[in-house]
Amino acid sequence: MKDRELTPMAAQYWELKREVGNDILLAFRLGDFYEFFYDDAVKASEVLQIVLTSREFGKGNKVPMCGVPHHAFESYVSRLVSEGFKVAVCEQMEDPRKAKGLVKRDIIRIYTPSTFVEGTQEHVWLAILRVKHQMFELLFLDVSTGDFMLEKIPVTEGTNTVEDYFYTFMPRELLVPNTSADHPLIKKLLEKLYNLVVTVVDDAPSLEEIGKRYLMELKASPELHLRSEEQDHIQIPPEAVRALELVYNPVTNSKKGSLLELLDSTLTAMGHRELYRRLIAPWSNIEKINSHLDLVEFFVMHPSVLEDVRVKLRGIADLERICSVIQEGSNVKVKHLLDIKEGLQRYEQLLSSQVRDLVSKSVSDVSNVLELLNESLTGVDAEIGSGDVIKPDWDADFGELLSFARESQKWLAEFESTEKERTGIKNLKVGYNDTFGYYIEVPKSRSKDVPPYYMKRQTLVNAERFVTKELLEFESRVQDAYSRIEEKEKELFAELVKKLADSLSYLRRAAEWIAYVDVAASLSLAARKMGWTKPQIVPERILRIKNGKHPVVEWYSDVPFVPNSVELDGSVRTALVTGPNMAGKSTFLRQTAIIVLLAHMGSFVPAQEAVVPLTKKIFARMGAADEIIYGRSTFMVEMTQIARILRESDEYSLVVMDEVGRGTAVADGLAIAWAVIKELSMRKHKPFALISTHYPEIAELSADLPVLFLAAQVAETEEGLTFLYRIEQGVSDKAYGLEVAALAGVPPNVLSEASKVFQKLSSQDLFQKPEAKQMRLF
Question: Which GO terms describe its biological process (predicted)?
Answer without folding.
Answer: mismatch repair
